[in-house]
Amino acid sequence: MSLTPRLDRLENGLIINGNFDHWQRGASFSLVNTYSADRWRFNGSHGATGTITRQNGGPDSKSAFFLRLNVSAADVSIAASDNYIFTQYVEGFVFRPAFGKKLTVSFWIRSTLTGTFCVSLGNNGTRSYVKTLTINSANTWEKKVFTIDHDTAGTWDLTNGRGLAMHINLIPGSDFITATPNQWINGLFLNTSGNINFLGSTGNTFDFAQAQILYSDTELEDPEFNARLYDSELALCQRYYRDMPHVKGMIISATTVAAYESVYPIMRAAPSISVNGTAILNAQNGLDNGTQSSPQLTTSFSGSNFVIFTAANFSGLTTGRPIFIGVPANNSNSIRLDAEL
């Protein structure tokens, strides 16, 4: 019996939330510049409309969910600058052990379309490797796997910035097309000519599941997908973004409260603090119970392991008392901390 470990079973996966289990921001989004499932970003310029949603199921029993993009109004006239990029940025600290090694990318894809599409790997815009792939059958889950040697030329962030980027451009504007795919090149490139325009017809769908990038010293021909434990994956997601239903604070005037909250696991960097949507906050301690007359929140100071902010527009509070601050129980919004790449 061999005691050699399976490389694809080790903790060498660069992608976070590749099984699309975690959707802290919600489960449905329009085709705008947005994070959807945790760690997965859509960004670009185009004329289509539609939705990005969490769907039940997947290519096999390893998945409870997958991501779907559905087009409700198409962009059939592609301008040179058109793009809509589905991306995960890998933090430099996470990418550092993979620097200079072989990178094996695998995922499952399903679409109403067939033809050539591309996955682009690169740094923060100055080096790219555009890999051409093919969807062979419509409305059928297909697994895609490829291995490349990581290129150490150029500048790569190996700390807490953008270390490695994985892009799929869903509408291939000519500004991002290369004539030299399947090799490392200078610049930001995402596609080759003749690629699928996923946004080109009403009713088009793009389904994506079980994504991973593994690093190793040897090529992995067909790596098995192995999701992390649910709680472990959530903790990794919360390094970049987290919802907080309430925080502890102190009443500092009849109209204003101040909040201090420790953050663990620590975040990638000092987060921005906001209330998701346009929700008002409430404050209560059993003696003082108040709701903001209008939304207001000011960040006083924040670090990777704590946040301090004030919230005004209350009335009738008693200075000096401790208090809990949060969104009303019947509101789906929350206080959010954002340290995304």
Give a structural overview.
- The chain is mostly beta strands and 341 residues long.
- It folds into two domains: 7-237, Galactose-binding domain-like (Jelly Rolls, Sandwich); 241-338.
- The protein is 4% helix and 41% strand.
- It has two helices and 23 strands.
- The strands form four sheets. The chain has a seven-stranded antiparallel sheet. Strands 19-18-22-15-16-21-20 form a seven-stranded antiparallel sheet, with no helix packed on it. The chain has a six-stranded antiparallel sheet with strand order 1-4-5-13-7-10, with no helix packed on it.
- A hairpin with an 8-residue loop joins β4 and β5.
- The radius of gyration is 22 Å and the shape is elongated.
- The two termini are 44 Å apart.
Number of folding domains?
Answer: 2
CATH 4th-level superfamily of the largest domain: Galactose-binding domain-like
Shape: elongated
Computed over alpha carbons, the radius of gyration is 22 Å
CATH fold node name of the largest domain? Jelly Rolls
Could you estimate the helical fraction of the residues in percent? under 10%
Number of helices: 2
Supply the helix-strand structural class. mainly beta
The total count of strands amounts to 23
Strand fraction:
35-45%
SSE pattern, N- to C-terminal: EEEEEEHEEEEEEEHEEEEEEEEEE
Low-confidence stretches: 1-10
CATH architecture of the largest domain: Sandwich
Enumerate the strands of the largest sheet in spatial order, edge to edge or round the barrel: 2-3-6-11-8-9-12
Average pLDDT works out at: 92
CATH top level label of the largest domain: Mainly Beta
The major beta sheet can be summarized as:
7 strands, antiparallel
